[in-house]
Amino acid sequence: HWRTFYIANVAVARPHEGRGVCQALFARLHEEAEALGATRCVLDVSMENPRAEGLYAHLGYQVIRTRHLHLRH
Q1: Which residues does residue 42 pair with via DSSP β-bridges, in sequence order?
Q2: Distances in Å between the alpha carbon of 72 and those of 7, 27, 47, 49, 69?
Q3: What's the rounded Cα separation, in Å, for the pair 46 and 4?
Q4: What's the whole-model pTM score?
Q5: Alpha helix (H) residue ranges in 1-73
């Protein structure tokens, strides 16, 4: 969908975790998405990363689909 703003590969260095860096980053990303005319923001997160899932839920994201991928490490 052309009005979808896709967010990929978000990471915060360990020494900066828990300091609101990710929240500030997402606030800025949401502003940019709105300025570009996006009507929604989406991202992918691994189900093996519950901390990220919790953060994204706190930021208002909802699970809309789950996929099972078989990736080689």
Answers
A1: 6
A2: 23, 33, 16, 17, 10
A3: 20
A4: 0.80
A5: 21-35, 50-58
By the 8 A CB rule, do 27 and 41 touch? no
Give the type of residue at 41. C
pLDDT confidence band for 43 (50 / 70 / 90): very high
pLDDT of 9 over the 90 cut: no
Picking from 73, 22, 64, the residue whose alpha carbon sits closest to that of residue 44 is 64
Buried b (16+ CB within 10 A) or exposed e, 59-73: eebeeeeeeeeeeee
What is the predicted pLDDT for the residue at 72?
67
**Is-contact 40 4, C-beta < 8 A?**
yes
